[in-house]
Input
Amino acid sequence: MKLTKLSAAVLTAGMMLGTAAHADDAALTVSGDVSITSDYLYRGFTQTSSSPALQGTLSIAHSSGLYFTLWGSSISGESVPAQGLELDPSIGFAGTAGDIEYDVGVLYYGYPGSSAPEAAAGAGQSDFVEFYGSISMMGASFGAAYSPDFYGEAGDSLYLSASYGADVGGFGLSAAVGFSTGDAYADDIIDYKVAVSKEVIGLGLELAYIGTDVSGVDEAVVFTVSKGF
Output
């Protein structure tokens, strides 16, 4: 996912709630989406061996700004748990301070059924926790995410990100860059993404170019179709 898409979905749900709900009406808003993508990349690295993935999000947001989100995706390949599923619940708080939107929370990366056999093989636990926060204003967003013990019990991880998006001629244009550092990595890693998106007959379409500065890791052109509810 992960963090950028998750935060955007959650913040959108919170903003919808703030503008549509009244104090005397229901305080909760439920929203979500389902999508098919040609490749699931996490911070520039494929989680499906460059094959398609089915993904979905379900968010429950309160008018106070508190929210709970569950995000899931099919996964496959030698570098990820072979059980075929990633399931990531998160809880956080989103709101505004003047012109600045903010979002803070904790995210659990879950790989159902994978921890026990991997631990027995000495590979370490797959599941891990990450604390995140971001601020956004005028189309720009800056975020940070920290895990005290990253995937595979590899050590701590800090991820810093920046992105910008705008609507140009009816198309959404966006660019993002991320920086991964910490004991979990042999070397610091930069990942990047540029994308164009458009809504057509109620479907969200996105074409993205994603890559990293890691030698031997190929860039990818990813096409995603999504439907919100």
Residues 32 and 229 are 5 Å apart (CA to CA). Residues 2-166 form one domain.
